[in-house]
Amino acid sequence: MVYAALFYLVVNAWLFILMGVDKKRSRLEQWRVPEKHLWLLAWIGGALGGMLGMKVFRHKTKHKAFAAGFPLLAAAHALLIGWLYMRFYT
């Protein structure tokens, strides 16, 4: 359980930071973080960090796939975590 929580925390922090890095690179017209990397991190548990990164850095907010996808993935992760907790720890 501790390892799962640590993994969740790290992947969310990683995607949050990556959203900021990508925004900075965008402004400087430098090499960008591929969107498939952002999506991969979101799918494996970092959607909440991605959502927060979108809000804080105002990045990818006009991309409908990100604006709708990250919150939906975050909700799905919350439901999964809640279900797993209820299934194994109650």
Describe the protein.
By secondary structure, the protein is mainly alpha-helical. The protein has one domain (2-89). It has three helices and no strands. The radius of gyration is 14 Å and the shape is elongated. The relative contact order is 0.15.
Quick summary of this structure?
The protein has 90 residues and is an all-alpha fold.
Explain the layout of strands and helices.
Elements: H1 2-27, H2 35-57, H3 64-89
Helix pairs in contact: 1-2, 2-3
Which features does this protein show?
single chain, 90 residues, 3 helices
Which stretches are low in confidence, meaning pLDDT under 50 for 5 or more residues running? none
Order of helices and strands: HHH
- Tell the overall outline: elongated
Count, helices: 3
